[in-house]
Amino acid sequence: MDAQSILNMVATALGIAGIIGGFITRQSLKLNNKIADSIKESLTPITYEIRTLNSHLDTNKEDHKEFKIQLEDHEECLHDHDKRITVLEKKL
Q1: 31-57 b/e with 16+ CB inside 10 Å = b?
Q2: Cβ(83)–Cβ(90) below 8 Å
Q3: What's this model's pTM, rounded to 2 decimal places?
């Protein structure tokens, strides 16, 4: 075999390797996009639920603060004799 034949075979092998490499790269990108879409599809509902739960938690915290204020006001009334009588009369 002469040098030209060897160079032609190397060039052909490199060309084939380039084609195969390009195909593998395109397939890898397609697979990567499918995986990314699948993950996004799976996480979107979970993300929404977490946001909803956090919103409910914030609302519950505010409700708890308001209840605590009302409870403290009520207890303060019970420590004052005249106010305690008024509170008891309202319950009857």
Answers
A1: eeeeeeeeeeeeeeeeeeeeeeeeeee
A2: no
A3: 0.48
Q: How far is CA 28 from CA 16, 24, 31, 34, 84, in A?
A: 18, 6, 5, 10, 76
Alpha carbon distance 35, 37 (integer Å): 5
Q: What is the DSSP letter of 92?
A: -
Alpha-carbon gap, residue 53 to 19, rounded angstroms: 51
Q: How many residues does the chain have?
A: 92
* Mean local confidence (pLDDT), 9-13: 81
Residue 65 lies in domain: 3-91
Structurally, how many domains does the chain consist of?
A: 1
What's the pLDDT tens digit per position in 68-83? 998 888 777 667 766 6
Amino acid (one-letter) located at 84 = R
Query: What value does the CA radius of gyration of the chain take, rounded to a whole number of Å?
Result: 37
